[in-house]
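Data availability (excerpt). The following record was deposited with the supplementary files.
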Amino acid sequence: MIYRFVELIQPKNSVHGNPATGFVYKIPSAKKNMTIYDTVDFFEKKIFPKTKKTKEQKTAEQVLLRKIINLHNNNGIKNIPQITSMINQIKSGKNILSDSGLPNIKLVKTRNKEWVLFDGHHSMLAYMALGRKYLSEIPYLIIQNKTGCVKDKEILAFFGVHSKKLRDLDWRDYVINWQQPEEKQLCRRVQENMGELFDSCQKLITKASGLRFLTDTNSTTH
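Predicted structure:
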């Protein structure tokens, strides 16, 4: 039987240097060609939070949020008021979670050790607006194969019906905008990572939320 692994990370607090607590769940593939989305759905509905954690661990890597690969250009980030609401929620001491309690932010890692955000762009932008710099400072979910990464062809599932237009490696050159008509949803990549995406949205976010510009904490020099 083929298995995937779901790693659920919760930071102990937002101060860099403090370890985050991680729990790893072993998930059987319930059907042939189970996509990463299928794994998340199966985990959320069938397992979480009923199952016991199989292993507790500490996060070993300090991953810069700015270096994480986005799957939306800035024209796919339309709901600035939602980001403002998330900012206020985080400031009140609450994390951004789904109704089930899972983190909104979901990622995979490629064999080239690239971190890819496939869900939770608005949430991550809200954390970045408040000066969070490292992945260990925010709650997130990562889907892995037994090697700790996923294959390029598995990432194509994030492009939905447009995946048929792409070859395995092509996903790096494209993003998706689900708010557009179907014929315009697949777009050439403009922002290369979450840092560039945040920079392109920062004025709108800070104006809407009343935050000051956080150039010190979000600078590309970090």
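Summary of structural features: Residues 194-209 form the longest helix (16 residues).
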